[in-house]
Specification:
The protein is an alpha/beta fold and 446 residues long. The chain has 5 domains: 127 residues, HUPs (Rossmann fold, 3-Layer(aba) Sandwich), CATH 3.40.50; 75 residues, Glutamyl-tRNA Synthetase, Domain 3 (Glutamyl-tRNA Synthetase, domain 3, Alpha-Beta Complex); 81 residues, Glutamyl-trna Synthetase, Domain 2 (Glutamyl-tRNA Synthetase, domain 2, Orthogonal Bundle); 42 residues, no CATH class; 75 residues, Arc Repressor Mutant, subunit A. Helix 1 packs across helix 10, helix 10 packs across helix 12 and helix 18 packs across helix 20. It starts with a strand and ends with a helix. The structure holds glutamic acid. Glutamic acid (GLU) binds next to strand 9.
Length: 446
């Protein structure tokens, strides 16, 4: 098989969110797994809504995720090529000017619906004579341009959806160029795919219906249509469409929430596939395991809790050197291997370690309820002298048990609350060793 060339083609009109990152990732994994190349194409023909900030953000987020590209370009730099392709279609009689206003088109569709007919463009503009067109233009009307579909069936074998067949007679001739001369996405996408030698168009299922027209445009421009793969969309955990929050769940939010790139990629690379969702070591591993045949037909459910669970599993196994600089950003005290090994299992993110810094190295407000006052006073009295060691906890609680008769939770929990000021956290025995005797005693007699 020739090496695949794929492209991820976001519009810089917003930030990358879990939905389009999944598309980027699937493209990347497929290309890398086959030794092919991955192009980042910025679809910025909508010059009003596209911004340099969003474009920079897309590049930053992809880089952060590890989804690096072999080549990148922007559509806004290629208007001359699109104009040349439009000319070619015009010469072939496949791109024709239309003068209807959007109100007129709306009315047309209403009438069609009322008659029980599908609201497909009626192609009236094809009957306009040169004189008619000249007259409309002197009235100040500017044409928009539609591609003339063949009316035949377009067929392809989708790598995810299997055999597909679209009757182009059931579609409106798509508008390729607006009245103001700007391009809709359809034509530039085909022109670029041909020129960049894209072998596989891999994108979300919402683009399936565009494929009918696009395949005809590829052919009209003299290129063979690339292979196509349309993946089911992501839905929320409850099966409904991605909620507003998830739909906009941006990489910047996930990054500042301390979610690791490989946790995101492990989840998005496996959601909706026949493989288990669990942490993978690297993108390379994900790429090795990637296969379009594993992607199911039903929508993939994205659950933020699952993402946090994967992240936690990753964090629990991280060694100290991996997190050293991130701990340093939390506090100089946190740069301590014993501390990290103590707290990591209680962290869902590396940054969660920050909340345990005061417990071990600083001050906390002990929690001591009234009925535990005497018990905690006894604990302070019986706290073994000298350095706190691995044996201290056992000796201390043994003595306390004998003196107070308390055992189990009634014995441990008040100590945890007093020593850490927290309901939950790392094992108290080990925490005691790290915090040291002075700090412990101060909290018991506070
Ligand atoms: N800019 C288009 C989008 O973001 C690209 C679609 C495609 O991959 O062809 O939806």
């Amino acid at each position: 098989m020739t090496k695949p060339v794929v492209r991820f083609a976001p519009s810089p009109t917003g930030s990358l969110h879990v939905g389009n990152v999944r598309t980027a990732l699937i493209n990347w994994l497929f290309a890398r797994g086959q030794g092919g190349s991955f192009i980042l194409r910025i679809d910025d023909t909508d010059t009003e809504r596209s911004t340099a900030e969003y474009e920079d953000g897309i590049r930053r987020d992809l880089t952060w995720l590890g989804l690096t590209w072999d080549k990148t370009f922007k559509q806004s730099e290629r208007f001359a090529e699109y104009a040349a392709a439009a000319d070619k279609l015009r010469e072939a009689g496949l791109l024709y000017p239309c003068y209807e206003t959007s109100d007129e088109l709306d009315r047309q569709r209403k009438v069609q619906r009322a008659k029980g007919r599908p609201p497909i463009y009626n192609r009236d503009a094809l009957d306009l004579s040169d004189t008619d067109k000249a007259k409309l233009e002197t009235e100040g009307r500017k044409p928009h341009w539609r591609f003339k579909l063949s009316g035949n069936r377009v067929e392809w074998t989708d790598l995810v959806r299997g055999p597909q067949s679209i009757a182009t007679s059931s579609l409106s001739d798509p508008v390729l160029i607006r009245a103001d001369g700007s391009y809709l996405y359809t034509l530039p996408s085909c022109v670029d795919d041909i020129e960049a030698g894209v072998t596989h168009v891999v994108r979300g299922e919402d683009h399936v219906t565009n494929s009918g027209a696009q395949i005809e445009i590829f052919e009209a421009l003299g290129g063979a249509a690339p292979a196509m793969a349309h993946t089911p969309l992501l839905v929320g955990a409850d099966g409904s469409g991605l909620s507003k929050r998830l739909g906009s769940l941006g990489m910047d939010t996930l990054r500042s929430d301390g979610i690791e790139p490989i946790a995101i990629c492990s989840l998005l690379g496996k959601l909706g596939t026949s493989d288990n969702v669990e942490i993978r070591d690297s993108l390379v591993q994900l790429a090795d395991e990637f296969d379009f045949g594993k992607i199911g037909r039903s929508p993939a459910r994205f659950d933020e809790t699952e993402l946090l669970g994967l992240n936690a599993a990753l964090v629990h196994a991280m060694d100290f050197e991996t997190v050293r600089t991130r701990l340093a950003a939390l506090s100089p005290d946190a740069v301590n291997e014993a501390f990290w090994l103590l707290v990591r299992e209680n962290c869902q993110t590396v940054e969660d370690a920050g909340k345990f810094v005061p417990v071990v190295f600083g001050d906390v407000t002990p929690i001591i309820i009234d009925e535990d006052q005497d018990f905690i006073a006894a604990a302070a009295r019986l706290l073994p002298e000298g350095e706190m060691t691995a044996d201290t906890w056992g000796t201390w609680t043994g003595a306390l048990k004998t003196e107070t008769g308390r055992k189990g939770r009634g014995l441990f929990m008040p100590l945890r609350h007093a020593l850490t000021g927290m309901e939950r956290g790392p094992g108290v025995a080990d925490t005691l060793v790290l915090m040291g005797r002075d700090r412990a005693l101060k909290r018991l007699i506070s």
